[in-house]
């Protein structure tokens, strides 16, 4: 079940994805360490683990669309 509280917006700049602000430590902006293939997979609902480079918080991206990622845990 996709829950709004598990969403976070991201920006795409060329092939890189950024969070405007980290949902955990509020660093801004943060490059999301995710491979292009994993992004494609996430669009198809294939889970992609990510460790935030700023604070080392772990999330699993369970799905994403053109504006938001859905994580396995609450982000807001
Ligand atoms: Zn952070």
How would you describe the overall organization of this protein?
With 76 residues, the protein is mainly beta. It has one domain. Helices cover 11% and strands 36% of the residues. It contains one helix and seven strands. A four-stranded antiparallel β-sheet has the order 1-7-6-5, with helices on one face. It is globular and about 30 Å long. The two termini are 16 Å apart. The mean pLDDT is 96. Bound molecules: zinc ion (ZN). Zinc ion binds next to loops.
Concise description?
It contains 1 helix and 7 strands. With 76 residues, the chain is mainly β. The two termini are 16 Å apart.
Shape: globular
Look at the structure and give the mean pLDDT: 96
**H and E order:** EEEEHEEE
Q: What does the radius of gyration come to?
A: 11 Å
Order of strands side by side in the largest beta sheet? 1-7-6-5
Determine the structural class based on helices, strands and strand pairing: mainly beta
Strand content: 35-45%
Q: Number of domains in the coordinates?
A: 1
Major sheet attributes: 4 strands, antiparallel
Small molecules (ligands, ions, cofactors) in the structure: zinc ion
Indicate the low-confidence ranges by residue numbers: none
């Amino acid at each position: 079940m996709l829950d709004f509280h598990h969403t976070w917006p991201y920006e795409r700049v060329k092939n890189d994805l950024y969070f405007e602000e980290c949902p955990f430590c509020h660093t801004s902006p943060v490059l999301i360490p995710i491979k292009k293939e994993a992004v494609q997979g996430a669009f198809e609902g294939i889970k992609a683990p990510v460790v935030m480079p700023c604070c080392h918080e772990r999330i699993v991206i369970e799905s994403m669309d053109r504006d938001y990622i859905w994580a396995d845990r609450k982000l807001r």
